[in-house]
Write a sequence for this structure.
């Protein structure tokens, strides 16, 4: 999909979404990157790309590290990232890996607010007892500095 | 009469006078019987060694087979299994006792299975003591205690002297004990020596001394089953 900026500072989204009058920009389309959001799913937390469609509710997804599989759309959270697959359904693994790398999905995800939020949550969950203490010390110091600056 | 249920069936319509002959003839098909008592007791199956009885016929035959104890494997007493997360130098959180909430250093496992821990005393006021691993959370933080000598601290060192339980006189019973319990000087010296060995290792890690001095507490929003230690 061609990308064209409507104005300076506008996000890079496919031009077709600006042609439509709908506020919806995250379409279920070939190459759309989604986050698997159901905790009990084996792919939980992974970013997958839609490579084909089964029916209204299910899609075929693939990602460089996983086995291609069918997944319900209910288990996916659609992101704003798209991978350019040249409109070919079910590309080969090599083609997909190259396309994902070209689109820099991991880099863009890590830079996005959503990706940063998930990374922050994971970091907080994996803090050890000593780490929690160090965080507490840092927060106390920060609070003292802020209070001093505001006084 | 002797039961012949384990033999092949005798032919029918046998005159009683021939029964005795058949008993002799069928001996080769029967299991060898040493005595009629054994046959009656039903201990003719192979493998069982029934206890030997006196040659005279007993006046009492028990209804059930005599029970004898089965062979048991020799009891092996192993050292209490230490959790994999607890290794020398691990920082533990005490969950019970006077020092609950304190973070202490694990030194080694004693012969009784209890854990030898110390504060160190200079850092958080916990002297060298024994603790059961059930009342402890092992954190993932570890320090190197390889060079520290803990040989003198064993179960005998911590064993309290037995109380004098002899009968007291009435005057002794009502006497008010005003003497203060003093710690033995050797105990204080031992703790000081252990502190001298361990405190530099604690001081080497930034924030660790403050961490060891702070107690572990649960605050609002803490979910211990989801927390990583």
């Amino acid at each position: 999909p061609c990308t064209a900026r409507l104005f300076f500072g506008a996000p890079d989204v496919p031009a077709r979404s600006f042609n439509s009058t709908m506020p919806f920009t995250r379409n279920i389309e070939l190459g759309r990157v989604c986050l698997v959001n159901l905790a009990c799913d084996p792919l939980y937390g992974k970013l997958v790309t839609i490579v084909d469609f089964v029916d209204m509710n299910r899609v075929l997804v693939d990602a460089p590290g996983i086995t291609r599989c069918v997944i319900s759309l209910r288990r996916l959270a659609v992101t704003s990232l798209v991978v350019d697959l040249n409109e070919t359904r079910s590309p080969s693994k090599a083609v997909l890996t190259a396309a994902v790398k070209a689109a820099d999905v991991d880099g863009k995800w890590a830079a996005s607010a959503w990706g940063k939020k998930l990374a922050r949550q994971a970091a907080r969950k994996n803090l050890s007892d000593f780490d929690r203490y160090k965080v507490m010390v840092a927060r106390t110091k920060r609070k003292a500095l802020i209070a001093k600056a505001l006084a | 009469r002797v039961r012949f249920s384990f033999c092949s069936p005798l032919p029918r319509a046998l005159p009683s006078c021939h029964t005795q002959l058949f008993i002799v003839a069928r001996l080769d098909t029967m299991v060898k019987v040493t005595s009629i008592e054994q046959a009656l007791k039903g201990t003719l199956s192979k493998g069982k060694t029934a206890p030997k009885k006196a040659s005279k016929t007993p006046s009492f035959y028990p209804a059930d087979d005599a029970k004898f104890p089965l062979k048991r494997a020799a009891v092996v007493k192993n050292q209490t299994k230490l959790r994999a997360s607890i290794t020398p130098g691990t920082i533990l959180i005490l969950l019970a006792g006077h020092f609950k909430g304190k973070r202490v250093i694990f030194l080694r496992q004693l012969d009784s299975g209890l854990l030898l821990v110390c504060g160190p005393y200079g850092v958080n006021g916990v002297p060298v003591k024994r603790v059961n691993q059930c009342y402890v959370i092992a954190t993932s933080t570890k320090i190197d205690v390889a060079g520290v000598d803990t040989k003198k601290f064993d179960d005998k060192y911590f064993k309290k002297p037995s109380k004098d339980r002899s009968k007291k006189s009435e005057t002794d019973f009502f006497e008010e004990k005003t003497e203060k319990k003093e710690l033995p000087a050797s105990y204080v010296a031992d703790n000081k020596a252990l502190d001298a060995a361990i405190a530099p290792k604690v001081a080497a890690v930034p924030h660790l001394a403050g961490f060891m001095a702070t107690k572990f507490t649960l605050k609002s929003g803490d979910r211990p089953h989801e927390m990583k230690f």
The CA atoms of residues 122 and 195 of chain B lie 7 Å apart. Chain B has a mean pLDDT of 81. Strands of chain B lie at 90-94, 103-109, 115-118, 129-131, 136-142.
